[in-house]
Design brief:
494 residues; mainly alpha; 4 strands; disordered N terminus
Length: 494
Amino acid sequence: MKTLTRYTLVCATALSLTGCDEFLGDNIDPNKSGLEELAPQDLMPTSIYYTSSAHYNIALGMCQYSQQLATYFQQNTDAQEETQLAGGWSNIYLQALPDIQTMLELAESQNLTGYQGIAKVLQATNLGLATDNWGDVPASQATLGEGDFSPALDAQEAVYEQINTLLDEAIVLLGQNDSSVGSDDLIYGGDLSKWLKTAYFLKAKYSLHLTEVDQDSAVSGALSALSSSFTSNEDDYELEYNTRNFNPWYAGVVLPNNTGNFSVLLNDQLISAMDGTQFPFATIDEDPRIPLISSIGSSDTDYLGAISGTGGAYQVDPRIAATADLGAEDFYSAQTAPIILGSYSELKFIEAEARFLQNGGTPTSTGSTTAAYNAYLAGIAANMDKVGVSAADKTAYLADASVAVGASNLTLALIMREKFIATFLNPESFVDLRRYDFSTAVFPGLSLPVDQNPDIAGRWVRRAQYPSSEQTRNGDEVAKVMQTIDTGVWWDRD
């Protein structure tokens, strides 16, 4: 029996979801089968599931660094203590990428171009998650299995080249109208036209990440790709959960918080961007999305976020009594809520920023093109529709003088404020802060955490540290590229 490709484990752990026959296909454990016993559709559900799980695990840490989330405890990740994102690393390298590689090999042997294209999009997604948060990571040698249990960590620039190659190959493959993909595709149900749009979305996103490397190229690349990408919320790149297979924010945060095992809650930086503190409203009281993405206790009257490093709702720091939490009925953290890997709203903010920069915009300049302004408004409207804002509330928000500033008064701070809100619980929020070097001109009110990690006192954290398990198993290779957490990744030219 041929051994499945694996990066560091010969036998990976089996998926332990209840009711996986309804959520993950035919209940065949690909980790205990030989290639001759498998078809690509057996690997598709687990490939998607572990990709989504990696996104959650990375967001749980990095959204504390970006100050969307805070912890209930002092001296934790939100105080910029080191985070290794071990769950995210495991999901990517021990589960998602091996299953995706096996799916790709099977699809290639059967000339199933749809599965090949989807596999390459998923590979690009996972490699992007890895390299944006750890920097240099295994890529070219990541799934050699028994061929190499000590893979080299590729330089991030090379990883980005591989990501773009994968997406270019996926675009060709997904355009060949293969009809073999079906319900095992948990994201689009076999609609390859939507996977094609996703490939272009990822090309636009990863291109714009390089604004500090070569701004003109980054902007032109993003604008070139986005015209072939998402056209509405119906195209969003997301995995929907159900009442048997819970959304991980619900399972990992809401349920523990409700039983006294507190973890994270909303950060003051996010709430103050939405309640009029940082951007005073003219005719409305607050952003109507606040009660749709967060919850407060029955005896609380205001949505208050926690200041990073203060101990959150335990009120270790008397300056704020945090109340805003992730709730069981909230859009992102309900039992059946989706994990959003990419959205039409995010795409419109990519467009708004790219057009703003193309027009000569800077972090402190005012005014841009009508196209940039319209993309900014479209991004807001799409996110409001996504989370369930009423038509009346959406109209009132978009008409408020603090939002409806006109093209001549558009600023990068307005674009990035709205993108920060729309990418709630998405590690992309930390990418944006790093690209603009934590500028308060772009992110008003941003400040270092209280009782910040003394090892980097006065400096911003800019990456995760490699998991201790990887430092042990693959120590020689990790040692060659390991950096302190306040050292920027390749594209982060601080």
